[in-house]
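Researcher: Let's continue the batch. This sequence belongs to HTH iclR-type domain-containing protein, and it's 201 residues. Same format as the previous ones, please.
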Amino acid sequence: MQSERVANPEQAELLLNPALGPLLARLCGTPAGAAVLARALGRPLSSTHAVLQRLVRAGLVTETLRPRAGRPLREYAMPDRWTVPFEVTPAATLRDLLASSMTPRVNDHLDGLAAVMTRLDCRWVIQVWAQDGHWQHNITPNVQPGPALEPILARGVDVRLSETRAREFARRFVSLIREMEDAQQEGEPVWSFTALLTPES
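Model: Same format as before. Here are the structure tokens for HTH iclR-type domain-containing protein:
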């Protein structure tokens, strides 16, 4: 199913729900039954079936019967492209819209980083200092050298750049991200990365 659809308010709420993302992504592939989807996602069959029925009622997912020995198999699928107009989203402002997609990712990063720091079982302190008119802070182990956190990275910085340099920075950054995406290795751990580059407001 390749056609692009325009979402209504009910569909927008479901399409933009981060918790449904893994299921929606699988529904855009080969049609599959509820049991197959539940196993792939590690979720109970009953709750997976309930969500599928809600998606069918909303007009997001099609339900078909595939003949087989005994009872036919109910299979589910959905178009892989949707357009969601801002006006039909639950967001009151553009900032709310951005937060709805970015906040869950940032929270996942914070949960993962805190879990690693907790496992290291050392005392953490916050160093604060002034630099170039900005008040900086850094969370670091109380002993040096501290435990190795690499390749885990958590860093924020403010730099003075021309628009040309900022564009070049963004281009090189995106190029590196694509390089890593193309070099993915099956069976290796998943590392999450989120980046924001914005001018000072």
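Researcher: Any comment?
Model: The helical segments are 9-15, 21-27, 34-41, 45-57, 94-120, 163-182.
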